[in-house]
Design brief:
Elements (H helix, E strand, L loop, with lengths): L10 H21 L3 H19 L13 H14 L11 H22 L18 H6 L1 H11 L4 H12 L4 H8 L4 H21 L1
Helix pairs in contact: 1-2, 2-3, 2-4, 3-4, 6-9, 7-8, 7-9, 8-9
């Protein structure tokens, strides 16, 4: 890692801090009703959220709804009520938007065949938008999880997303994975989590 002169912070850390500061400024303007700030935030977050959401819609449900459309709709709905959002930590907006997208995916899956209920988004939540995994392990490990998740097979990734991120019961996971029983789904999730842990350790 390089530094930009003696005593200065690493360039990547400085860039992250600059982006965090500019995001906070844009948020303040957006919450005050500045449409240009909303547009700037959407331009910043939509591409990365589309990348993040890619693959999170189970294969069997991809004919029901387009992932990009789900992301855009969730982000538009969230920014329509951005005045209610109070950022409490760096990355809170991205986490909040991710949870909104997961809720929209849950809605689509429920319409397609009875999937897990949405989680209510509240600006008073202690860590708005963070997934249960992020609550449990923190942002740094969550980043390693994210990278490792996409080294897995489609089946393993879907098993983990259905159980860990979408909060499905093993009966619901069995339906999503085409397993005959909840026990078979439980075993599939367990094997997938072991492979995930191995990938995270290698990373």
């Amino acid at each position: 890692m390089t530094s930009n002169g003696a005593g200065e912070q690493p360039l990547d850390l400085t860039a992250r801090q600059t982006e965090a500061e500019s995001t906070l400024q844009l948020l303040q303007r957006a919450r005050a009703g500045d449409r240009a700030a909303v547009d700037a935030l959407m331009a910043r977050y939509l591409p990365r959220l589309r990348r993040w959401a890619s693959g999170r819609m189970p294969i069997w449900a991809r004919d029901v709804a387009d992932t990009d459309d789900i992301v855009q709709e969730a982000v538009l709905r969230t920014f329509a009520r951005i005045g209610d959002f109070e950022p409490r930590r760096e990355g809170a907006l991205q986490a909040y938007l991710r949870q909104a997208i997961l809720n929209r995916i849950r809605d689509e899956l429920r319409r397609a065949g009875g999937r897990p209920p949405s989680i209510e988004l509240s600006p008073d939540s202690p860590d708005p938008g963070a997934s249960p995994f992020e609550h449990a392990v923190g942002a740094e490990t969550a980043e390693r999880y994210e990278a490792a998740l996409f080294t897995l097979s489609d089946d393993d990734r879907e098993a983990i997303i259905a159980r860990v991120e979408l909060g499905g019961s093993y009966e619901e996971v069995a339906f999503a994975l085409g397993k005959r029983t909840a026990d078979a789904a439980r075993m599939a999730v367990g094997r997938a989590l072991l492979r995930l842990a191995e990938s995270m350790n290698r990373g």
